[in-house]
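Hi F.,

I've been meaning to write this up properly since the lab meeting, where we talked about keeping a consistent format for the predictions we share between groups. The idea is simple: the sequence comes first, exactly as it goes in, then the structure tokens exactly as they come out, then a line or two of notes. No screenshots and no reformatting. I'm using this chain as the first example so we have something concrete to point to.
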Amino acid sequence: MLINKVYERIFKIWRVKRLKRFMELFTPKPTDTILDVGGYPQTWTVLPQVAERIDCLNLKTYPWEQEQDFPEHRIKIIEGNACKMPYPDNAYPIGFSNSVIEHVGDYEAQKAFAREILRVAPKVWVQTPAYECPIEPHYLAPFMHWYPAGLRRSIARWFTPWGLMAKPTKAEVDEMVDTTRLLTKREMRELFPDCTIITERMLGVIPKSYVAYRT
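Output, unedited:
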């Protein structure tokens, strides 16, 4: 799909740069297992194997993402709810999540997501797009996340690059509006009170995304 190719080209450089920073800060051991909450194998295949195993947890799995498709990497694909994970406390050495918490629902659901990843891993890395950035990265359009939900529903299909390229149905527009909630820096501090918050910036000035990490 054209929109997926556009996303890949725009965000690949940022993802690789961010992953390298994660590696520098966390330096996973060869014996560590990393829980990638809401993540996909492609996040990790840009680098050599970085840990004993990467477990990618998602609400559902997809036929085009099978463990055997990545023979150079030890990746396990798991179905599960990020807001209610079936793991004991500190089950994983490292919990990782990239651009997921903004999709789990309302602020209460985001609180549950944060509590869970902080519970299941002593070390965590959670990235999310910044609400303060004027460009909404999912619609690829300015100011969309600042508009009321009703206005977003009205203009998303015909007045955003996402709508014009993806050609979403009304149900898909509704899903995008209902399941995308960007976080402010203040909210990130509230959700991750014992974490350091990094601000990634565009042009050295504009907040692009936030990373909460605990090592």
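Notes:
The mean pLDDT is 92.
Residues 130 and 184 are 6 Å apart (CA to CA).

If this format works for you, I'll send the rest the same way.

G.
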